[in-house]
Amino acid sequence: MSSQEAIWSPLWRSQVVNQLKQTDSQWDMLIVGGGITGAGIYREATSLGLKVLLVEQRDFAWGTSSRSSKMVHGGLRYLGSGQLGLANDSVKERQNLMNELPGLVNPLPFMMGHYKGMFPGPWIFDKLLAIYDFMAGHRYRKYFSKGIRDFFVPGMNTSQLKGATQFSDAVTDDARLVMRVLHEGNTDGGTAVNYLKAVDTLKTETKGIEKVSGLKLEDQISGEQFEVSAKVVINASGTWTDELRQTLGQKKVIRPLRGSHLVVPFWRLPSAFTVSFFHAKDKRPVFVFPWEGVTVIGTTDLDHQQNSNEESSITREEIDYLLDAANLQFPEANLLKGDIRATWSGVRPVVSKNQDKAVDSNTPNKPSDEKREHAVWDDQGLISVAGGKLTTYRLIAMDVLQKAAPYLPEISTDFKKTSHFKPSTLSSGFVELSSELKKRLLGRYGAHAHTLVSHARELENGLEKISTTDTLWAEIIWSCQSETVQHLDDLLLRRTRIGLLLDDGAEEVFSGIRDICQQYLAWDDVKWQAERKRYQNIIKRHYSLPE
Ligand SMILES: Cc1cc2nc3c(=O)[nH]c(=O)nc-3n(C[C@H](O)[C@H](O)[C@H](O)COP(=O)(O)OP(=O)(O)OC[C@H]3O[C@@H](n4cnc5c(N)ncnc54)[C@H](O)[C@@H]3O)c2cc1C
Predict the structure, then answer these.
(1) DSSP string of 260-306?
(2) Can you tell me the distance from the alpha carbon of 326 to that of 485, in angstroms, rounded to the nearest whole number?
(3) For the segment 94-133, what is each residue's pLDDT rounded down to a tens digit?
(4) Which phi and psi angles does 253 have, rounded to 5°?
(5) What's the CA gap between 381 and 310, in Å, rounded?
(6) Every domain of the chain and the residues it spans
(7) What is the DSSP letter of 525?
(8) What separation in Å is there between the alpha carbon of 44 and the centre of ligand 1?
(9) Sign of the CA dihedral running 340, 165, 67, 527
(10) Over the stretch 270-315, which tens digit does the pLDDT of each residue have?
């Protein structure tokens, strides 16, 4: 699909939506869902030369993929519960992503304390980690018997502490990972449009057999509806997977499980490590980890019964549960509700064990008993996928393409040979940037990092950091220019994360943000005020303490 405007520039979206409405174009593949699962399929499908349209009902990564725990991890928990395949795949993907996206997927050391009479003891934990390290092809584990709270994790509870084991996983910015993957797909000729919702499946009948042949779409900005057709339709809509499948008479299979997090200032709970431990109340694993200059405490695992059309929100019970966990592990910190800077909650699209029964009927098994593996279904040419993890998004994409292959006879099914990310560098001329900052920008923006920095140099404060965050003012400008920002929350909660990292959704820097939105998105005062109100409402209802 051609558009006069450069891809994802401020005017691009309306031009492309107009073309979609007016022309009766046939796509190879339509993808519903702009989370990591949809993005991964988009990236792999475009690299095979397919003509692909991805539609997202809200903003890219608006669903679970901006509200995960942000670990790119093998999942020791999966290993412990015998899900060896998932653990092995995840460890290998973790290694691949760390190698390919340094600066966006970074190693993160973990620490697990061993307390007298409590699980896990150092010996058994070492054996588990030996398998984990074997899968990675690298030894990361190390045992410490001294200096734990002095040198490694200040304030950690040392009563009855025998020692601690260090091991390694990785951490990312989940929403930026989605954007990076989508950018790669754009470069290979794909079309990804936000605020475009699939409202129904279209079917055609050949020789008495019905097949899904397209979608009815609704533009969430203008409210207009129109139809698009494709050889195959992919449903990667996460916790909403059942909705499109139900248009074909399928039963519900998704059990939505919520997990919530607290953000506190780093100085209130400083740690260079992720501290992993078991909650005293229910023995579930919880962790405290450093992320983007703040400390995060997570997570819970509960049936999610809130309205699925709104962002999920933390409850009072979850706040108490997470504060109790942190205060037991770090008694001296004495964290209070007033220390909480932000919260976020995500919903796991878990494929329930009770697939053959309707899962509405209150499934008896505990949330933590549910397996986290993904599943793929082909219902009359609607290929649906759900479950799995952020970490394994590429493997999930391969499985989906295998399932879609019968509808796309022209493609080769030797998918594993495709490379994920195009290599990119920043010229050595940018002497004012530290190597750490270069890595961060390259990881996040790939080949676009060069343009971002070149433009930043021409601006007065382009290379300055925003308040106490690592985000540059130039990143805000870049996103406005080149990342189809429609609302203020797109910019402050997903393109950048400053709404989660600064007090009150980053209100202290609003005047600078307003100037940029007015200059680069052409928002007048009325539009800015409306966006500000909308954003503050979202922050209050979904990213703060409950009232
Ligand atoms: C609390 C929590 C912590 C987690 N931590 C980790 C972790 O540390 N590491 C890890 O690897 N994994 C983690 N996960 C799992 C991981 O986040 C998810 O598996 C992954 O983000 C799911 O991505 P998705 O694209 O399938 O779903 P989503 O990100 O929810 O994307 C689906 C998208 O589809 C869109 N959509 C829905 N219906 C329509 C429609 N009709 N038309 C158009 N668009 C539609 C939605 O708006 C949404 O944006 C965690 C999950 C949770 C909940």
Answers:
(1) EEEEEEGGGS--SSEEEEE-TTT--EEEEEEETTEEEEE---EE--S
(2) 36
(3) 999 999 999 999 999 999 999 999 989 999 999 999 999 9
(4) -130, -10
(5) 29
(6) 12-65+175-253+368-417, 107-169+256-351, 435-542
(7) H
(8) 18
(9) positive
(10) 988 999 999 999 999 999 999 999 999 999 999 999 998 999 999 9
Separation between Cα atoms, residue 58 and residue 490, nearest integer Å: 9
3-state SS assignment for residue 190: coil
Encoded tokens for 449: 């990092």
Q: Is 389 in the pocket of ligand 1 (CB under 6 A)?
A: yes
Instruction: Yes or no: say if 322 and 275 are a contact pair by the CB < 8 Å rule.
Output: no
301 CA: nearest ligand 1 atom: 1
> Considering the entire predicted model, what is its pTM?
0.96
With a CB cutoff of 8 Å and minimum separation 6, the contacts of 81 are none
Contact between 152 and 110 under an 8 Å Cβ cutoff? The reply is no
- The answer, yes or no, to whether any atom of ligand 1 lies below 6 A from the CB of 347, is yes
Please tell me the distance between residue 71's alpha carbon and the centre of ligand 1 in angstroms: 14
SS3 402: helix
70 CB within 6 A, ligand 1:
yes
Ligand 1 mutation pick, 20, 37, 58, 68, max ligand atoms within 8 A of CB? 68
> Are 388 and 364 within 8 A, CB to CB?
no
Cα distance between residue 91 and residue 140, in whole Å:
12
Superfamily of domain 12-65+175-253+368-417: FAD/NAD(P)-binding domain (3.50.50.60)
Alpha-carbon separation of residue 231 from 405, 414, 478 (angstroms): 10, 20, 35
Alpha carbon of 423 to ligand 1 centroid (Å): 27
| Protein residue with least CA distance to atom 38, ligand 1 | 237
Give residue-wise pLDDT tens across range 429-451. Answer: 788 899 999 999 999 999 999 99
CATH class held by domain 107-169+256-351: alpha beta
CB 311 within 8 Å of CB 281: no
Ligand 1 midpoint to CA 434 (Å): 33
Nearest CA to ligand 1 atom 2: 68
CATH of domain 435-542: 1.10.8.870
Query: Residue 276 corresponds to which tokens in the numbers above?
Result: 């992993």
CA pair distance 236, 233, nearest whole angstrom:
10
Ligand 1 atom with the shortest distance to the CA of 299: 1
Residue 150 tokens read as 């002095």
CB-ligand 1 contact for 94 (6 Å cutoff): no
Q: Is the CB of 57 under 6 A from ligand 1?
A: yes
Task: Using the mean position of ligand 1's atoms as its centre, give its distance from the Cα of residue 523 in Å.
Answer: 30
